Amino acid sequence: MITVGTVPERLARNRYAPDGQSHIQVDQDRARATGAAALLVRVCPAHVYSEAPDGTLAVQHAACLECGACLAVAPPGVLRWRYPRGGYGIAYRLG
Ligand code: SF4
What we know:
Layout: H1 7-11, E1 15-17, E2 24-26, H2 28-34, H3 36-43, E3 49-51, E4 57-59, H4 69-73, E5 79-81, E6 89-91
Antiparallel strand pairs: 1-6, 2-5, 3-4
Iron/sulfur cluster binds next to α4.
């Protein structure tokens, strides 16, 4: 029988090359106006987003899985998202 492990175990096999330059930018005014923070905190599987008590949306971009879920649900204008620069970001290990 082949065992694949739990999701956290499988994700732990990946490699990250963190970029000092974030590939995710937030328009904080637009995020507050649309209430996007709660949605982004809930949808991101890597817990990249967190909401500060003052409503500011914090981003831990180095943990990003590059799945695109946040872009799919964010109200227009809240996020500017691009892939990390070449050589940075996540490298998936599927075995
Ligand atoms: S692309 Fe995926 S992992 Fe990265 S911040 Fe968006 S939802 Fe989170």
